[in-house]
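Budget justification aside, the reviewers requested a transparent look at the raw inputs and outputs of the sequence design task funded under Objective 1. We therefore reproduce one unedited record. The lines immediately below are the structure tokens for a 80-residue chain.
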């Protein structure tokens, strides 16, 4: 089983050069702080880190609203 941490999510944002976003930032999608290009970059980094694809059913805007929703999504997605 994979350990999902907020620190890993912080590092993922760092890897896609979005250091302006941190764990306290909310409404990433709603406030247009990240866009579809950022989401795809995040997905690519997540897949590279965990060594498995992220099922397309998890790639929904509501799963990328903040660090906690990303963490929650990954905890479910990486169980399978």
């Amino acid at each position: 089983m994979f350990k999902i941490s907020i620190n890993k999510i912080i590092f993922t944002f760092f890897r896609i050069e979005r250091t302006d976003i941190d764990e306290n930032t909310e409404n990433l999608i709603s406030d247009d702080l990240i866009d579809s290009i950022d989401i795809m970059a995040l997905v690519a980094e997540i897949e590279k880190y965990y060594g498995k694809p992220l099922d397309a059913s998890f790639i929904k805007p509501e799963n990328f609203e903040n660090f906690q929703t990303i963490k929650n999504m990954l905890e479910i997605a990486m169980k399978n």
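The chain has three helices and no strands. The CA atoms of residues 17 and 38 lie 10 Å apart. Computational costs for records of this kind are itemized in the attached budget.
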